[in-house]
TrEMBL record:
The lineage of its organism: Bacteria, Bacillati, Cyanobacteriota, Cyanophyceae, Nostocales. This is Tetratricopeptide repeat protein. TPR repeats lie at residues 9-42. The keyword Transmembrane applies. Gene3D superfamilies: Tetratricopeptide repeat domain. The keyword Hydrolase does not apply. InterPro entries: TPR-like_helical_dom_sf, TPR_rpt. PANTHER family: ORF03 PROTEIN. Keywords: Membrane, TPR repeat, Transmembrane, Transmembrane helix. The chain crosses the membrane at residues 153-173.
Length: 178
């Protein structure tokens, strides 16, 4: 393997990992497959790339490809790769649990609301709802309806604060430490 193809493989591997971690699984599969094709399958790096490829296959919905690759990687000469392949194969072949609908929370599609200003406009033309709105007039409150009776809370609070300050001043002049 030439140094140039090794660099291309490493770059594709890194690009594939970044794509996988950002949720772009199809792109991750493409880059990881490219890296895997350039590397020796029995090398440590080749096994590492193919382990990532297994997870990318699964995330992209290609479970059968992921299982087939794991079956092959179980016999990889690098022990860490074969151990990871066996663990992944166990997970991939595990029965899928069915979740009751009561456990699921449905997130409504807010894009269907008629007053949604954040809709994507296909034509790019401003619509009636995108026109600037007039600011709402302030709502005046009838003070005769508001309870303005003194509940004496402020006087109690001021008394407690005054007593606390007086006590602290008395302690500082009497020479007693707190």
């Amino acid at each position: 393997m030439s140094a140039e193809s090794l660099e291309i493989a490493k770059a594709s591997y890194q690009t594939g990992k970044v794509a996988f971690e950002s949720g772009q699984y199809r792109e991750a599969v493409e880059n990881l497959e490219k890296a895997s094709a350039l590397l020796a399958r029995n090398s440590r790096l080749g096994g590492e790339v193919e382990i990532w490829l297994v997870t990318a296959y699964e995330a992209a919905g290609r479970t059968d490809d992921a299982i087939a690759l794991c079956e092959r990687l179980k016999r990889h000469p690098y022990s860490e790769t074969s151990k990871q392949a066996r663990r992944l194969l166990y997970i991939l072949k595990a029965p899928k649990l069915v979740r009751p609908n009561e456990w699921m929370t449905e997130i409504p599609d807010l894009g269907t609301l008629p007053d949604n200003d954040l809709k994507i406009r296909a034509a790019g033309k401003p619509t009636k709802s995108s026109q600037p709105r007039k600011p709402a007039e302030p709502e005046f409150i009838d003070l005769s309806q508001v309870n303005t009776r003194d509940n004496r809370f402020i006087w109690v609070a001021l008394t407690v604060i005054g007593l606390t300050i007086s006590y602290l001043v008395w302690l500082s002049f009497s020479g007693t430490s707190v």
